[in-house]
Amino acid sequence: MTISTSAEGHLNDLERSCRHPKNLSLVGLSVRLDPLNVDTHSVDLFKANLSEDNWKYLPYGPFDTLESYQNWMRPYCSSDDPVFLAITRLNDNKAVGVASYLDIDTQNASIEVGHLNFSPLLQRSKEATEAMYLMMKWAFDNGYRRYAWRCNASNISSRKAAQRLGLSFEGIFRQAGIVKGENRDTAWFAAIDKEWASLDRCFRSYLSKENFSATGTPIKALSAMTAPLLYKVDDSL
Question: For the purposes of burial, counting CB atoms within 10 Å of the CB of 96, is it exposed (0-12), middle (13-18) or buried (19 or more)?
Answer without folding.
Answer: buried
